[in-house]
Amino acid sequence: MESLKPLSDFFSAIEKDYRISITHIGVYAALLKYSGDRGFTSPIQVFSYEIMRIAKISTSTTYHKCVKELNEYGYIKYEPSFKRNQASKIYFSCSAPSI
Prior knowledge:
By secondary structure, the chain is α+β, with helices and mostly antiparallel strands. The chain has helices at residues 5-14, 22-37, 48-55, 60-73, and strands spanning 44-46, 76-79, 88-92.
C-alpha cells in the first residue's frame, strides 16, 4: 500500500485547508494516477487533456484554475510549457504547505 502514501499525505495536508475543493482533489488524484502509471517519475510531463480525462473535467479553464491554485498553495510545482506540442512539467511537493 506504499503507492497510496502520496494521496494519504495530501489528504492529511488538506484537512484544515478551506481553499481546497473536490475539483482540486480530483485533479491531484488524477496527477498521482498519471505519475504512478509512469513509475512515479519526477517531474511528470503532462498535457492538460490527459489529466482532464482522468479527473473527469470537461473544460480546460477549470483544469488550469485548479492546477494554478495547487501550485500557489504549495501542493505541486507547475511549470507550464505554453506550447501545444510540448507537455507541461509538474513536480509533487515533499512537505505540506502552510496555510
